[in-house]
Every structure is written in structure tokens, then in C-alpha cells.
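Might you be able to review the protein record set out just below?
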Amino acid sequence: MNNFRFHVYTDVRFGKGQVECLEELIAPFGRNVLMVYGGGSIKKNGLYDKVKTLLAGYNVFELGGVEPNPKITSVREGVAICKKEQIDVVLAVGGGSTIDASKAIAGGACYDGDPWDLVVDSSKIGKVLPIVTILTLAATGSEMNKNAVISNMETNEKLGTSSHYFKPQASICDPEYLYSLPAKQTAAGTADIMSHIFEQYFQKESGAYISDRFAESLLKACIKYCPIALQEPDNYEARANLMWASTQALNGLLSSGKGGAWTCHPIEHELSAYYDVTHGEGLAIVTPRWMRHILSDSTVEKFAEYGRNVWDIQEEDVYKCANMAIDATEQFFKDCGIPMTLREIGIDDSKIDLMAEDTIKYNNLDQAYVALNKEDVAQILRDSL
């Protein structure tokens, strides 16, 4: 097991009605609040009005319209508001994209240059405004971690950045806010959760027994509860377990004692950078193809372990077990209604070599579970067509 740092100080308020704690969570940081949100769903479900009522005694400024793949243009707009209005705390109300944008805004507000600098070079992230979140989508785990992913459509770049200062001070997680999600977002969000887990589960370090067992339990929770949430959108048990799985999947717990570069996320980031696709759908399409591409004598035991412990496959032959597990993964995503080819989401082979080159350029895939080069990435993308 590798050395690690596990320090997650986010005050999580989980469950029904926890939004009533909002004023208590905001008060320590100041009176000037920037509320960041996305496409307007919080106005339809009443959360927007609830927040405004709870913060009636505060100076609340707004940045709406944050994109599903948050763009640096929105971040720049938020930074400008923070500097002009002397914002004390950034309140993100939405899913991972809103929270990611809010992190970049909170960092950019304390930085003299262009906030894109903080995306390209995380070492430039210093002081960050306090961040509080109200989560409305189970997917990214951004409500309790140090990560943010921002897109620059002018340069066709979608890059991740991180800082311990990006961790939210507090997050309100009420599963009832997931009831109104479209089935597409529920399914894609679950695929994102599972991909986060896969990226940490399939790593070279083999001695992190506890982390791997945690990972398997979270995967089983996703497999159990996503179909229920799709059939019964207001099933509290399903929504609560998916929401908590999302948070636990990427707050540092699963990576404790492990390490190494990720693979499917960097590949999908290029899909989103060039085509602005739904992140979780891109991950679901790429993941089974990546699994088949790297299956070998050196990885088969891990895939068989995954098959036995997550999918309850009893096949003794390790290759058969591994392939059955990969097939089950792909079928699960398909059964959840996720398109399973790139062509279904409007992507052809015209930019595959370019995306493969950028994947290698911006990510250290030589340090991944199985090292990949440009040709490997291109083949995985072609297999996904």
C-alpha cells in the first residue's frame, strides 16, 4: 500500500430538508454571496426560491447558465463578479459542472491573471474563496473533493485541475433534489460514478485491500440502485444510495494507498472538448472498449476479481470470467438507456487521430494501469464507433 494523505474537511449535511442549514453554513464567511447555477432547473423545482428566502439577509449576486461541460468563459464572468462585488463566498447550486465552475471562479477571484492559467497549471492556485455547495446531481463527487474540469472551446481543450483549497467548506446533499432528473442524467451520472471507481480500482498497486473492497461495494450499489431510480424517480432509498456513492467515489477514500494515471477520463475529455458530448455517456461508451483492449495475462486476474466480487460471476476460467464481467458492464450501461457507440452521439472517425494525439499530449498515460500510446487510444476510439 502506498503512502497517502486523506484530509477531507467538508461539512456534509446529508438528507431530507438539510437546505434549512444553509444560512448557518454561509454565515461564517461573510455577507456577499455569489450563487452559481446551471440551466434553470433549480427555478423549476423551487430550490432557487428557497435559497433566496434563506439568504434574504445577504447580498446575493448570481451567475446562471453554467454549461454541462463548464466553459472558461463562464468562469471568467464569475471571477469578474467576485472582484467587482467583493464576494466573500461562492455558493454552487447544481451538479458537478456548476461546482467545478465555482471552484475555478473561487480560485480565479484571488488570482491576478486569467483563470485559465489555474486550469493549465494547478501550482498557480493559491488562496481560494470559501465554497459551499447544494448538490442536485449524483455524478462527479465534486461536492467533497479537490478537482475541477474546465473546457476551453476556443482551443478544443478540456482539462482537469486540482487543489486542496478547492475542497468545499460545506455541502448540502438532499436526495430529494434528484427526483426531477431526466432519466438521461440519472444514467449518465451513474456511469460517471462507476468510471471514477474503475479508474481507482484498476491500478498497479495490489496491496490496497480495503480500498478495493470499498470500491466493489460502491459499484454494486450503482448496479443495484440505478435501475430502480430509472423506474421509480422518487424512490428515496435509490436516490440516497446513488448520491452517497457519488460522494464516496471521489473524495480520496478509494485512492488511499493507490495511485497512477487515469485512462478513460482523459480519453473522454477529448470527446467532450471536440464534440461537447455528455460526459457520462462518453465514459460508458469508451470504458468496455478500454477494458477489452488492455485485457491480457497481466490484467486478467484483476478483471476476474472484478467479475466475481461485483457481478457474482462464478466462472473458474479467468479469461471467461473477465470477458463475462466486461460484457456485463457494457450490457448494464445499455440497459440503462445509454447509447453505446460514438456514432449514436454524433461522432465519426474524422478526428480520432487528433483526439488520440491530444489525449497523450495532455495526460501521462505511460503511468496508467496499462500504459497507452497514441495508437492504443486511437484503436480504443475506433472500437467505440
